[in-house]
Design goal:
407 residues; alpha+beta; five-stranded antiparallel sheet
Length: 407
């Protein structure tokens, strides 16, 4: 063990004497690892966030299709679906989108007769009906408890909508109905910034008011959310629903997650193609290393062989050099990747991976120490460099020391 440690110490000392060359190699090496690790960690973090956000989503969503297009579904189908064995609850949902010309954004409109008042921003004296935390003895839940009913003519908006239209509690949000008439519900609350991933572009209206906005009849809903008792029964329930009505489409939560994974894989693959240029630059560096050793390195290996070092010891010395440079570069690259994701929010490729939107929420990414990042970075970066470092050293190790020194 002492023998191997001495060889490792000599390898570190040799790299320290060649500071400029070692610094260049470590810098290029670290940047390559940082870019690859950032991409892998970012994609994994997006997948993790998607799974967390969809954890409370309904197990099944039932939609009606006409000519392959989504259209409103009759509400009376909910009773027949609820009678299927294994179904716990069926909820008709009313929701949709509206374009806002002043901001150029698309708002998501959602129908709900009550909202969790504790999820809203507390009033700070600028008006509104939501009670500040502890004002009425309900821990900020509002005058009616944790869920506060929405009155006709009121709405609750996300932080992105409020910022885009410069609104606050008590102001009015102009919207256009399906018949072209304008109406302006009063803002009764604004969702907290902590929930911006789900509520950034959201406008919650009473269900009846939203039906009037879309011109949707009371016997129609946009879709049906189906809750199932056991996850293993989702496929069976979906099959029974499709047997009842051939014009419906069932979308399970697992299918939505699979779609997210496919999208992230595709977008990550686009960036992998762009990273081939960086990999090509690193390949040139590795090839330059593999084509031969410098005269100083050859002289050092010749002296070591002349004083009695075996070819195995010479190869171990070069192996230690490659391992030290690789370990330092990988550690530095992973730290740079974490800094890029945490401090810069993955600015290098965030637009491509997350998509484009006028009202895109601030998504807080939590990259973890993912083993997949190491499994991808190590074969792509460490192995080529270490092998390329050993090839010319092996040729020098089996050559007579007198030949090396004379050359």
């Amino acid at each position: 063990m002492i023998h191997h440690l001495r060889i490792c110490e000599l390898a570190a000392a040799t790299l320290a004497r060649q500071r400029a060359k070692t610094l260049v190699v470590v810098t290029v090496y670290s940047l390559l690892v940082a870019v690859v690790a950032s991409l892998v960690l970012y994609v994994q973090a997006l997948r993790r966030e998607a799974r967390l956000l969809l954890a409370d989503a309904p197990e099944l969503v039932v939609q009606r299709l006409t000519a392959g297009r989504h259209e409103p579904i009759p509400v009376d189908r909910a009773a027949r679906i609820a009678a299927i064995r294994g179904v716990r609850e069926v909820r008709p949902r009313v929701w949709g989108y509206t374009y806002d010309p002043p901001t150029g954004a698309t708002f998501t409109l959602w129908g709900a007769d009550s909202v969790p008042w504790s999820a809203l921003e507390p009033v700070d004296g600028r008006g509104g009906t939501a009670a500040p935390s502890g004002a009425d003895g309900t821990d900020g839940a509002g005058p009616g408890g944790p869920w506060q009913p929405l009155a006709d003519g009121e709405c609750v908006v996300g932080q992105g909508v409020a910022d885009a239209r410069f609104l606050w509690i008590g102001d009015r949000l102009p919207l256009r109905r399906a018949d072209g008439e304008l109406f302006a519900p009063r803002i009764a609350g604004i969702f907290r910034a902590e929930s911006s991933v789900l509520t950034h572009d959201l406008v919650v209206l009473p269900t009846a008011a939203l039906r009037r906005t879309f011109g949707l009849a009371p016997e129609r809903a946009i879709d049906l959310a189906v809750a199932v008792h056991h996850p293993q029964e989702v496929a069976t329930v979906a099959r029974k629903i499709q047997e009842l009505w051939p014009d419906v489409r069932t979308i399970s939560r697992d299918q939505v997650l699979a779609t997210y994974d496919a999208v992230f894989d595709w977008r990550g693959g686009v960036w992998v193609a762009l990273l081939l240029a960086v990999a090509a630059a690193f390949t040139i560096l590795v090839w330059d290393r593999a084509t031969g050793l410098s005269s100083e390195e050859l002289h050092t290996l010749g002296l070591l062989k002349a004083v009695g070092w075996s070819p195995r010891d010479v190869l171990e010395l070069c192996l230690w050099q490659g391992v030290i440079v690789s370990a330092l570069s990988v550690a530095t690259g992973l730290l740079l990747a974490q800094a890029h994701l945490l401090w810069l929010d993955g600015a290098l490729f965030t637009r491509l991976l997350r998509g484009w939107s006028v009202l895109f929420p601030e998504l807080e990414i939590h990259p973890g120490a993912d083993a997949l990042a190491l499994l991808i970075c190590l074969p792509l970066t460490v192995l080529p460099y270490v092998v390329a470092n050993l090839l010319p050293s092996w040729r020098a190790a089996i050559t007579d020391p007198d030949t090396i020194l004379r050359s």
